[in-house]
Amino acid sequence: MTALQKEPILDALFEEWEVLDQLLSSVSGDAWFTPSPLPGWTVHDIAAHLIGTESMLAGIPAPHTTVDVHGFAHVRNEIGAFNEQWVEGLRGCPGSEMLERFRAITERRRSELAAMTDEMFEAETATPVGPAPYLRFMRIRVFDCWMHELDLREALGVAGNEGGTRGETAFEEIAGAVAFLVGKRGKAPEGSRITFELTGPLAREIHVAVDGRAAVVDELPSAATTTITLDSRLFTRLAGGRVKAADHRDAVSISGDTAVGKQIVDNLAFTI
């Protein structure tokens, strides 16, 4: 695994916060309550989640709520319940206050991160993917914030570039899950050689060889048994669980073993 580099990850995270600030600054009135691609969440709720996660990392406890968030249909685990505590706790805050809260907590987090030593970034901590270095958690934060930027853009009808530093950094979290998605979720059989051909703003090829277990490789040992071609914008939304492959069959091209390809595409979601 390539060693994580602090500066590019923090630069991407700080840039992401600035872009989110700009997006939230454009929201007014009832637009705060526009439904998002996430079940049960509005623009206001996404902002509350972003504020809540950074607040947790700053040591700020979630606001008290008497609502049993575990009973919500879109809450499937304890991380989801934690997120929902902040959503419920901030539900009564007006949009202008949400923006100020977002600015205040991201400014605090920026200062805290700037003051951390290399040893602190290397220290193992609890993350949504299990124990990992704190710096890895910050890359996960880039991914989470970037995905929610896409959610906000879709809800508000605001276009944006999905490539660049933020997109490339966020995509590293998706790329790290591809072998799991092909082997465990997609159940690609032994000997499978899978190539993803992504077009669009995050264009690239990803090769996965199944030899005992699935692994991403720089080059396949022989011709791909299945090639899956789709736009990176659709790929990221499938990986993020925002859309279902069944609703986008015409946008995905599969050659070779199409049955294996379809099974993989139908099981690309990996977010919690």
From TrEMBL:
The keyword Isomerase applies. The lineage of its organism: Bacteria, Bacillati, Actinomycetota, Actinomycetes, Mycobacteriales. Pfam families: MDMPI_C, MDMPI_N. Keywords: Isomerase. It comes from the Bacteria. Residues 15-153 form the Mycothiol-dependent maleylpyruvate isomerase metal-binding domain. GO terms for molecular function: isomerase activity. Residues 169-260 form the MDMPI C-terminal domain. It comes from Rhodococcus tibetensis. This is Maleylpyruvate isomerase family mycothiol-dependent enzyme. InterPro entries: DinB/YfiT-like (IPR034660), Maleyloyr_isom (IPR017517), MDMPI_C-term_domain (IPR010872), MDMPI_metal-binding (IPR024344). NCBIfam families: maleylpyruvate isomerase family mycothiol-dependent enzyme.
